[in-house]
Amino acid sequence: MTEILIVAEQLDGGLHPVVGELVTAAQGLEGDRALVVLGADLNELSKTATSLDVDEVYVVEHRLLLEQTSEDLFVAALEQVCRQTEPRVVLIGRTFLGRDVGPRLAYRLGVGVAQDCIGLKQNEDSGRVVVTRPVYGGNAVATMAFGQQNPQVVIVRPRIYESVEKDVSRNSEIIPLTVNLDSSMMKVRHIERVKSEVEGVRLEDAQVVVAGGRGIGGPEPFSQLSELADILGGAVGASRAACDAGWADHSLQIGLTGATITPDLYVTVGISGASQHMAGCSGAKHIVAVNKDANANIFKEARFGVVGDWSNILPSFIVAVRDLSTG
Ligand SMILES: Cc1cc2nc3c(=O)[nH]c(=O)nc-3n(C[C@H](O)[C@H](O)[C@H](O)COP(=O)(O)OP(=O)(O)OC[C@H]3O[C@@H](n4cnc5c(N)ncnc54)[C@H](O)[C@@H]3O)c2cc1C
Predict the structure, then answer these.
(1) CA 213, 219, 221 angle in degrees (round to 5)?
(2) For residue 231, which of 69, 71, 246, 317 sits 20 to 30 Å off, Cα-Cα?
(3) From ligand 1's centre to the CA of 181, what distance in Å?
(4) Are residues 25 and 152 in the same domain?
């Protein structure tokens, strides 16, 4: 019997980055940690999984789980794994897969589920998991506790926790598990996966992000934001207002209903700092804000701020940064 079961989703043949973050989240709870890896031909992947800070790695190999093309099979397999291992807590990343699989798994097991968690800990008295999650469109954060049923299914937002360090000298035990699956369980199947082309650094992976909001007044200034981002080796982002106006693609939107970013440096230009925007960038280490309104909310979050019209500030800022980076 395991205490905390962490679902090890895959991405491009490796472990999804959220898996290491879930292990960090699990370190804050009491009890043995186990990863469950599901798929086909899992030798390499299970070895990688043992390098994370877990006690066991459950390996579920089944030819129908090849490439995880069906959430239906994934749910069916996870349900069987939970019935065999009886975890107290199940941790799943809030990825496309996790959002779909988590609630369905909880329903099948007849237990509760907490979606989109941005924090979790263990209540010292009850031993139950307590989570925090944004509510009312990100305007408030609710603290919620699980009832008495196990497992407590927690779906954690990616990029909230730092990933645990890999250590190849770790020797977690690999335990094969058998599940019964057949193709009649598969109600929906993925036919094709199309990846959007990204030029330069992916927004979610960037260590520097330069973003524009409604205050920049149109699509053209985004070329200046790109110029600055290029010099800093970063990516361009946008507020929802700028995306809704058609000035930037929606894939660049940062916030509650957009991407969550955790760069070292986040430069915002003409962004007010609404709570729904901040929900996607609160993990940024340093925020630099340019805004003409000294009372804009963004200045409450920013480490450095410049009050003024962006069109007077940005060009000389770009020159200064270029000089520094080439000097
Ligand atoms: C359910 C829900 C989900 C949402 N999800 C998101 C989300 O994921 N991401 C998101 O961004 N928003 C989201 N929003 C919208 C959010 O509430 C704000 O409306 C939005 O973030 C505002 O974008 P903005 O800061 O670009 O625009 P504004 O709030 O209009 O701010 C523009 C800023 O630019 C400044 N400015 C104007 N002119 C200049 C100038 N010349 N130079 C310098 N500064 C200037 C102004 O002082 C102002 O502070 C969501 C809203 C809801 C209800």
Answers:
(1) 75
(2) 246
(3) 48
(4) yes
pLDDT tens readout for residues 260-300: 898 999 999 999 999 999 988 988 999 999 999 999 999 99
Q: Which two tokens stand for residue 11?
A: 């991405």
* Pairing, β 265-269 against β 14-15: unpaired
How many angstroms is it from 33 CA to the middle of ligand 1? 41
Residue nearest to atom 42 of ligand 1 (CA): 309
Q: Which structural domain range is residue 136 located in? A: 4-185
Angstrom CA distances, 229 to 60, 100, 201, stand at 43, 34, 10
CB atoms within 10 A of CB 278: 21
Confidence of residue 67 (pLDDT cuts 50, 70, 90): low
Identify the CATH number of the domain in which residue 299 sits: 3.40.50.1220
Task: Return the residue whose CA atom lies nearest to atom 22 of ligand 1.
Answer: 241
- Please state at what angle helix 71-85 crosses helix 96-109, rounded to 10 degrees: 50
